[in-house]
Amino acid sequence: MVRQGAPSVPSLIICDQSGTELFDPGAAGRLEHRMALLAKAGDTVVVRERVPEFEQYLGDYLGIRDVSFVEAEPRDADSVARQLRVNPKLASLLGEALPDGTALTVQSYLTNGYTWHLAKALADCRQTPVSVAGPTSRASKHANDKLWFWSVVRTLTGKDSTPPTLYAFGPAAAAAKVARFARDFSSVVVKAPSSAGGRGNLRFQSAQLEKMRLTEIRDVIEQRLRAVGWRGTYPILIGVWESGITASPSAQMWLPKKDEGLPQILGLFEQRVEGSRGRFSGAQPAILPDDIAQEFLAEAAIIGALLQRIGYFGACSLDAVIRETPNRRSELHWVECNGRWSGVSIPLAAARRFRGDDTQNGLLIVQDIFPELKPIGTRALLDLLDELAFRSRASEEGIVIVSPPNRAADVSLNVMALAKTQPRAAEMVEELRRRLGLGAA
């Protein structure tokens, strides 16, 4: 029997990010390993490529022990959940890793149809109950679709509660709508509706479009979208890249099943985004004016309740921007829903595990790429951290390695500083940057 929920039984944690649109296994690096921070004794974690140094770190420093790791096919772009179901070798490895005769929970980075099919196959094979700690396939698809989110939010909270946005159902319509926005706004954005992390965001300066014919705009849009892996599917989103942004808050939420409680807002975080695509590079607890914070939290609860009604269960986050108008009034505009675990919700869950509910102060997440760094492994990073490294049950503060750094040309750094105060968390991150030979942030 397969059901939705998260009972206290051993979990199969699938770290795969392939359900997001424009996913590229080669460019994903080692961020998938973040999900291992959710593991507990008796759980099984599936990654595309094992990193033994990081697995050792989890046990030695964070107390995450007695966890089994299974390696999927690293070069196969197919969903890992599907691989586990149809690949006999992987299915055998998984069967050996999972505990015998017990109920099981399947928890994926992004829950989709492949997750539910795997849960059904496991239930049939093991003859034990299997739960899925995530939304229904339909709810997951809707929640991660920026166009669906835009339409729903306007209905729930008013037509002015999002940036100006339009659908485009083909290349000619996309060009015409980009040109239309370019006449009235300084920047226009084109988005693949279900992409993540800014990968499918294309920003156009309106001044560059002024002298272009519609056919030229059409060609540029398609060329740039295809360059990031887009496969020609419509509709796409055409919107305004707003100016006057003063904050980029995100509501980190846990949504119980609709008959088990109201939406829970676990934290309000300010996201750091960089570059023309708005790439996520970190977060910290947000500080907003009281009136905006109240509006933000109230509307987040309304949106969360709708997601519950359509079958959403589990972690999700709602992203917005705060814009200052020419008359100095602050406007809240909703941008998207991340209907999955994320670069904020996973570290936040780990922080709550280590510190309880005290996570709205003294927490700083870094997720960035540093081409100037030489390749470095988990062990070498720990040597650099030295006394700064957080140790579960032994430290009041310190830096947690959220995912192993890439040992490649562009070194990724994904860490979380935990401290009693926000300035102290920032101070620890700056000290790590100094030890790595990086300049001030």
TrEMBL record:
InterPro entries: PreAtp-grasp. It comes from the Bacteria. Residues 33-122 form the Pre ATP-grasp domain. This is Pre ATP-grasp domain-containing protein. It comes from Jannaschia seohaensis. Pfam families: PreAtp-grasp.
